[in-house]
């Protein structure tokens, strides 16, 4: 990886160089890091990193592990939060918070870790007092319910590096962004007219490729009266979209409970950032986006996060990682036993549960990580689609079928998303 980074630096177009936002430090030619010296609970640290357009620091190779350790130690760190969610006792159960992969590819756990009994989050030991364990990782308990035993740690935030560019309104992740208020003084436009305005900058209506980018874009509209923006997506079928900038449609954040139809998508920047289908003639604020450097010079990509696959019954106790679906067995039918699922989202996010189909006499119960019931649904055979959000990144769900089903009892279906 380091060789590819050096090679890309060598052949960058004249005038371009990899850089970080002004308050972050470039480490190893690819990492943009900032140390926060005030100890914080994990949720506070994660949220601060989200507001910066990133996550808690992630570590993908031994060279970066050493560099991050030295960076945090030099700033006064002893033990820091890192961007890692751990859902089991194996290296395949460790998920980096930027959705880039699992710790099976690289890890540096303290002997005896990962250990789920110690918590779902992780810290990195950077102080000299840790001896041979300096630079290693271990589980930490981070979800809390007014629990004084939960610890606070200092932390390092990581944001995507970008390239130098003089004409951007917003420079982030190797792209220039322009809000419509900058280009057309806030005039609302339909898809065609907005596309024309973006083209005047050599740009396209924005495509979005990660939850991190969703959060970053939301932040750009904080404190404004803009509630929704037009995105650069067009429908090729009732359920399939493409990005007009020709980038892959590799991330989907359409609200599962929006039953509208339309050839375009808008993003709710004033809410959770979910997307809704709309008619392309609707007039909205919009966001333009342009890649700063050619694709060949794109920043290094990491192995994709693996999907957690349910067993064939759908009625089990497996982990289900957002984004995904779960339902009674078989699909749209009622099981004969109690079904149980553990729903997960990466560290910075809550679990969003969107029940888009309900035709059952059964009972659905949702519990937080402490076993507190946060949702009880039963007594209504045909229930209108509904949603609920867990307070943490772990939720446990049970579905108890009716004692005596009816021929029309078809169970339920739900989508989970990171919120």
TrEMBL record:
Q: Per its UniProt entry, which superkingdom is the organism in?
A: Eukaryota
State the SMART domains in the record. Answer: CLECT (SM00034)
Q: Which N-terminal stretch is annotated as signal sequence?
A: 1-17
> What residue stretches are annotated with the C-type lectin domain?
28-145, 172-289
Q: Which UniProt keywords apply?
A: Disulfide bond, Signal
The answer to whether keyword Zinc applies is: no
Record Pfam families: Lectin_C
Q: Supply the InterPro entries for this chain.
A: C-type_lectin-like, C-type_lectin-like/link_sf, CTDL_fold, Snaclec, Sperma_CUB_dom_sf
Which SUPFAM superfamilies does the entry link to?
Answer: C-type lectin-like (SSF56436), Spermadhesin, CUB domain (SSF49854)
What name appears for this protein in its UniProt entry? C-type lectin domain-containing protein
What is the organism of origin for this protein? Caenorhabditis briggsae
